[in-house]
Amino acid sequence: MDTQPGLLRCYRHPEAETGVRCARCERPICPQCMIPASVGFQCPECVRNGSGTGHAAGANQPRTLAGGRVAADGRLVTKILMAINLALFIAVQVVGDRLLDDLALIGGGHVVLPNGEPVGVADGEWYRLLTSAFLHQELPHFLFNMLGLWMIGGIVEPELGRIRYAALCLLSALSGSTLAYLLSPHTQFSLGASGMVYGLIGAWIVLARRRRQDMRPALLFVALNLLITFTRPGISWEAHIGGLVAGVLVTYAMVHAPRARRDLVQYGACGLVLLIDLGIVLARSAALT
């Protein structure tokens, strides 16, 4: 029988060619062995091992591509992040510019208020690196970022699992703010979840390649968004690029980590990105002060 190059053979039915792997153990499975799961398909053994009760069931629960637990609600963390963004958006509409002054990221590290008080990350207000990533002032900006978070987060969160997905979102947001802090013009205020959204876009690219899916939709989406980033005025390209790079790096480590050292590689990659951000912020603050 002729075989197509690149196709695998089912581990239970060696005569059957397949291009699908179990979402949990990654063994090749044919249509006869494919059991639909919340993410992709699983083999009969993984489904059987994860169907017990008590402690054994918890130890053998189906796992995501990155090793996280498969959850019934694949968008729970996404919903929480959107709720935080919505709460701050409403607060800005009620309180006004005073809240923006207190929480937004300030280019160049700091500004001096009319009363002579300096404010900004360089003056110890490090929280702005994260609060600015959940802050929106204009409705179109808020809606565009929330649409991206909902659509792409719905793809990425089930693949990583809740804890890893939350780490990806926070590191992408922080890395976007960090690059904006380093490169944005002096006294420019930056805000919005764009760094986080671009981190998810980077994760989408890595996942599509890891799953051997058609990457053209993801790459086209990235190209269109980068075109908008660099052609429209008033957009913080620094936050977009910082989030995108962090999203690619963190997700690549999560889905390509060897199973025997998965936690070590994943935690190490997240820690490395965090240390790079910390080093940039410390160096920039030292230069400014």
TrEMBL record:
Subcellular location: Membrane
GO molecular function: serine-type endopeptidase activity
GO CC terms in record: membrane
InterPro entries: Peptidase_S54_rhomboid_dom, Rhomboid-like_sf, Rhomboid_protease_S54
Pfam families recorded: Rhomboid
Peptidase S54 rhomboid domain segment(s): 124-255
Keywords: Hydrolase, Membrane, Transmembrane, Transmembrane helix
Transmembrane residue ranges: 76-95, 139-156, 163-183, 189-207, 219-235, 241-257, 264-283
Membrane topology: Multi-pass membrane protein
The keyword Transmembrane is assigned to this record: yes
Superkingdom assignment: Bacteria
PANTHER family: PRESENILIN-ASSOCIATED RHOMBOID-LIKE PROTEIN, MITOCHONDRIAL (PTHR43731:SF14), RHOMBOID PROTEASE (PTHR43731)
Family, similarity comment: Belongs to the peptidase S54 family.
Protein name (record): Rhomboid family protein
